[in-house]
């Protein structure tokens, strides 16, 4: 697992992505976009659940989960269903960040409680802009649910 520790109460992002090129692209795009929240990376669905289970127990869930759909071991939809069923994480913002635009995938993600479904852009410039606006919305402007912690603006 490539997750890194975060300071208590510090908003952080969990990126659930198995493709190393996409991990690098997202990390670079977030930096270029000025998103300063630390990014924890896990490579498959089981690692995501292990990470999130520990974060919920420590009362430090991420401020945002960027969740790929096609993952080893457990896919993104299975992880999403687990998150929504977990009492300490049910209000956690989850953004599906994937290449699939199949109606069945999109519909199932929303049925399971995804907050947003974003298609991965083709270029770094497009990825940077998408992640800039995503970061602004979820980390700056969105008021977190009291179920996510202290309810303060992030």
TrEMBL record:
<feature type="modified residue" description="4-aspartylphosphate">
    <location>
        <position position="68"/>
    </location>
</feature>
<protein>
    <submittedName>
        <fullName>Response regulator</fullName>
    </submittedName>
</protein>
<dbReference type="InterPro" id="IPR011006">
    <property type="entry name" value="CheY-like_superfamily"/>
</dbReference>
<dbReference type="InterPro" id="IPR052893">
    <property type="entry name" value="TCS_response_regulator"/>
</dbReference>
<dbReference type="InterPro" id="IPR001789">
    <property type="entry name" value="Sig_transdc_resp-reg_receiver"/>
</dbReference>
<keyword id="KW-0597">Phosphoprotein</keyword>
<dbReference type="Pfam" id="PF00072">
    <property type="entry name" value="Response_reg"/>
</dbReference>
<feature type="domain" description="Response regulatory">
    <location>
        <begin position="12"/>
        <end position="135"/>
    </location>
</feature>
